[in-house]
TrEMBL record:
UniProt name for this protein: UPF0434 protein DSM104440_02806
Record-linked InterPro entries: Trm112-like
Record-linked Pfam families: Trm112p
Record family assignment: In the N-terminal section; belongs to the LpxK family.
CC per GO annotation: cytosol
Organism: Usitatibacter palustris
Length: 59
């Protein structure tokens, strides 16, 4: 993931910062507890494509 891109990407719902989880290839919004997938190095920033984090998952 390009560091410059990470600097400008925000959660599409709350406009908050995102955390890059390299091992899962996801961008995580801690506030909304959503994980947005990154497919072929392209972030999919659609709410309907996001995965809700489980209660046992660390955001």
């Amino acid at each position: 993931m390009d560091p410059k891109l990470l600097e400008i990407l925000v959660c599409p719902l709350c406009k908050g910062p995102l955390l890059w989880k390299r091992e899962a290839a996801e961008l995580v919004c801690k506030a909304d507890r959503l994980a947005f997938p990154v497919k072929d190095d392209i972030p999919v920033m659609l709410e309907e494509e996001a995965r809700t984090l489980g209660v046992d998952e660390d955001a």
